[in-house]
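Cast an eye over this sequence plus tokens and explain the fold to me:
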Amino acid sequence: MTQPPQSQQVPGTEGALTPRADHGEQSYRGSGRLAGKAAVITGGDSGIGRAVAIAYAREGADLLISYLNEDEDARETARWVEEAGRRCVLVPGDIGEAAHCRTIIARADQEFGRLDVLVNNAAFQMSRTKIEEIPDDEWERTWRTNISAIFHLCKAAAPLMKEGGAIINTTSIQSDRPSPELLAYASTKGAIANFTAGLAQMLGPRGIRVNSVAPGPIWTPLIPSTMPPETVAKFGADTPLGRPGQPAEVAPIFVLLASAEGSYMAGGRYAVTGGAPIL
């Protein structure tokens, strides 16, 4: 797949992507691996989050989708979830606010009476070529959204989870191979990897498994909305597979980690990078 130079306003929308991303709408086939479960997915309106939502719904889970303000994209995700015969609750708002994180988890408990899976996927990034160009508020927003929110969501979710529960955090190849122009984003992704490893040990005795997924270059609205057009045009070309990945190609590992088939997988970080190694 190649993509032309393009740009969007943050946070970006699926409809403006050229070419359109594949979230598994026509390809993912479920087999009941998450039947009867309830899951929260942050950033579930688009990109990897939408692909995970479609896969989870087709595997039998009811979903709460957290997103910032991309209402049209969120409604499209909900349509696919409901078409699979599952419930989808949409909760807009800024996960950079601790109170909103607690509201998300409380709403899931209210709607479903249980919480089995938490997918911390939402993220913010911007490209800057010099450290002097990074505004203080942008640095703070990146850390609040990408790592502090995960802490607040996990803190609220853990007491509701029973043995067999799963928390899955989206880190990135940037945690090991940071691009200098993504200094703020990459540093938060390293923090997520460390946080995941520690939390897995903390919650393991309760039977709650914590893992992370480290995607490489995946074609989502985040890319043209936060990178220069010339970077977008060659996005993913430097991977061994020679192309960016599609969200649909990331979703299956999230299914495995949430399901009983991943019952002895905890504290791990799993690469979906098109062949680029992580440490």
User: Anything to note?
Assistant: The beta strands are 38-42, 62-67, 88-92, 117-120, 166-170, 209-215, 269-272. Residues 97 and 111 are 21 Å apart (CA to CA). The first strand starts at residue 38 and ends at 42.
